[in-house]
Amino acid sequence: MAKNTRIAFFFICDLICFNISYLLAFLNSAAVSEGQLSVSDAAGRYMDIYPTGFLILIIIKLAAMYISSAYKIMFEYAGSRDFRRTSLSLGASTLASVTAAALVGIGPALLPQVILMSFIFDAALILTIRGIYFKRFTGRKDEEEREGQGLRRRYAQQKNSSGGRVMIIGANRAAVDLIAEMQANESLGRKPEIIIDDDKSHDGDILLGVEIVARRGEIRLRARRQNIDEIIIAKPDVSKRQLASLLRECVKTRCRISMLPLARSSGKPSATWTASVSELRKPTVADLLGRDRPRVDHRKIGDELKGRVVLVTGGAGVFGSELCRRIIRYKPRRLIILDIDEDGLALLTAELESYHTAETEFRAVIASVRDATVMRRVFNAFRPHIVFHAAELKQIPLAQTNPREAFLTNVYGLKIACDLADEYTAEKFILCSTVRAANPVNVASQCKRTAELYIFEKNEKSHTMYSAVRFPNLIEGRGNVIAIFEKQIAQGGPVTITDEDSVRRFISSEEAALLTVLAAAQAGGGEIFEIGPGEAFGLSELAEAMIRLEGKNLGDDIEIITTQRRAGELVTEEAREAMQRGGPAQAERIWITEDRSATKLPHWSQLWPKDPEQMDDNNVMEILRLVFPTYKTKAEGVTSRGVRVENE
User: Fold this and answer.
1) Which residue range(s) make up the domain with 110?
2) Looking at residue 272, which CATH number applies to its domain?
3) Pairing state of beta strands 638-640 and 590-593?
4) What is the rounded distance in angstroms from the CA atom of residue 561 to the CA atom of residue 254?
5) 436 and 541 within one domain
6) Could you give phi then psi for residue 507, rounded to 5 degrees?
């Protein structure tokens, strides 16, 4: 029931109840004191007094009930505390009416029988109506049953060191469960002080004795004013984007932060889910950077992948693994996972074992994409219809100081797989690239851009359709800045950032993989699909937020220090402006880049000798100068957005 409707309902009910109570109390008093007075005579006398007497007292009672916040109580989720609060409000209204009667001189209302009986009738009628409302509109068990033995057994098992004054975010059933548990079990050490909710209709309401404030912008202010120790996000039905927005507000306080797991990820039906303090967990950086899952045409993807042979190179990496998890759900006839990482392959194959059926099988192949002989055997044995090339060396500082390895993996390995896809007539070849290839100013990004240029030249001469998919940094990346920050925080700091102005964009591997297979389904050859733009975060802001999420304070527990920029690192990785919705990419968060082949590759005989394994770092730098004439050598450094970056 809406707030205003609820208030009007109870106000009218109370008005009727107060009238009935005074009438019954007066009739009872008249019968006791005058004995032979008939009911009709007593009622007539009551009506004579009513306009200048009892009506004024009823109005005073209603005003007292309103002032004492009796109409702000959300009886949809009422508990024993709320019924006690209503009883106290009734007592206060009776006292106010007696005081007014004495001041105005309304004698009949001062009779002890009238005072006592009217209060008894008030309590009986008003509390009964609220009890019926609670039962009728919620269908929930009464408070005594909620606090029964089953709940107490859960309390006995609860071991949580957190405590103090608590702010709850969310005025819903989950919040009711948490507040009731905290109030019933003082050993938890948590005391609910305030509820923050986005629904303005709840502003000023009272939920189990706790005030609701419908202003998210007051999270920091209320946390400071009310000395809040912990913020609990009790919104299991919230979207990932809304959760991320809430967390960005919460991390600006100095409070510990806890949250209930999202109902969608927990697998529990939200309608019957009973929340518990034992289920609270710390938010993660993935929650902070999370975005809602994009809407995609799964039927189109299924039509593309079902019954096909799919090869994923670099399949044991963070992105490659997620890509394999996504692909196998569409029931390909065979999924070939190729990587040089033995441990990663073993873990992934064990995880995917449940998908192994008569119509879907997978094979794990330990091989390097740089080994042309083994790669040929793989293509000859499995004849893949679709190839996802995710094998790469992607760490910018390591690529900058090891250009030979970066080139052989990102370019030479790509050429081997690309040529074999053409030779064995694969239908599609999808290069998993990076948004950095749009502005290639370091070895890693230039190698990826060179790979893109090669597949576009190949696309013009082959029956195989070659396309590239670019995406930003992955949240789950094992060597990215998030992983570094997590390790530094776990060690007690300090957290190091390379530049206070540095900004990075992040995307989850799940989203990147889903959109990559969608792009593959839409690919017609020659496109650069860009996924993004990803959630932007300043590195200093991200470091501070991650410190807060761990329940630590910046400066007191962990410090942030600024070091020098790493080799080949840019200040910002901006989303591409040269992106345009259109063509086959009529999908959420996927664009087709119009800038496709502004740079032409030299003839491959100029790019490496007959035996590429004999190349050294100097050979690679000479090759990159041929492809990108404006590129600076390691000693000369590069310039990004007007800022000189030394490539150490």
Assistant:
1) 3-140
2) 3.40.50.720
3) unpaired
4) 20
5) yes
6) -145, 150
**292 within some domain:** no
Instruction: Give the pLDDT confidence score for residue 603 in this predicted structure.
Output: 66
pTM of the predicted model as reported, rounded to 2 decimal places: 0.72
Rounded distance between C-alpha atoms, residue 572 and residue 569, angstroms: 9
Asked whether residue 455 is assigned to any structural domain, the reply reads: yes
326 and 414 inside one domain:
yes
* 591 Cβ contact list (under 8 Å, min separation 6): 529, 530, 532, 576, 579, 580, 581, 585
CA distance readout (Å), 38 to 20, 32, 110, 112, 233: 18, 11, 22, 21, 62
Could you tell me where the beta strands, DSSP code E, fall in 490-631? 495-497, 503-507, 528-531, 535-538, 560-562, 579-580, 590-593
DSSP per-residue string spanning 287-340: HHH--PPPP--HHHHHHHHTT-EEEEETTTSHHHHHHHHHHHTT--SEEEEEES
Residue type at 284?
T
Partnered with residue 350 across adjacent β-strands are none
pLDDT at 141: 43
Going by C-alpha positions, the residue among 426, 547, 541 that lies closest to residue 490 is 547
Across the strands, what pairs with 310? Answer: 335, 386
The answer on 615 and 466 residing in a single domain is yes
Domain boundary at 230, 248, 283, which? 283
Instruction: Give the model's pLDDT for residue 410.
Output: 93
One domain for residues 62 and 207: no
Domain boundary among 113, 140, 167: 140
> In this structure, are 202 and 215 located in the same domain?
yes
Domain annotation covers residue 288: no
Q: What's the pLDDT score for residue 583?
A: 43
Average pLDDT over residues 36-60: 77
Q: Please report the pLDDT score of residue 540 as a whole number.
A: 86
Closest C-alpha among 434, 415, 433, 467 to residue 623: 415
Answer with the residue of higher pLDDT: 266 or 250: 250
Segment 232-255 shows an average pLDDT of 88
Phi, psi of 300 (to 5 degrees): -65, -40
Judgement on whether residues 484 and 629 belong to the same structural domain of the protein: yes
* Dist CA 185 CA 2 (whole Å): 31
Domain count, the chain: 3
Give one word for 449, left, alpha or beta, with left for phi > 0 and alpha for psi -120 to 50.
Answer: alpha
Determine phi and psi for 363, rounding to 5 degrees: -130, 140
Structure tokens at 298: 């799964």
The mean pLDDT value for 84-95 works out to 82
Residues 486, 402 within the same domain: yes
Flag whether 646 is in a domain.
Answer: no
* Whether residues 11 and 65 fall in one domain: yes
Q: What is the DSSP string of 394-406?
A: --HHHHHH-HHHH
Q: Between 80-104 and 112-138, two packed helices, what is the crossing angle to 10 degrees?
A: 150
pLDDT in the model for residue 152: 39
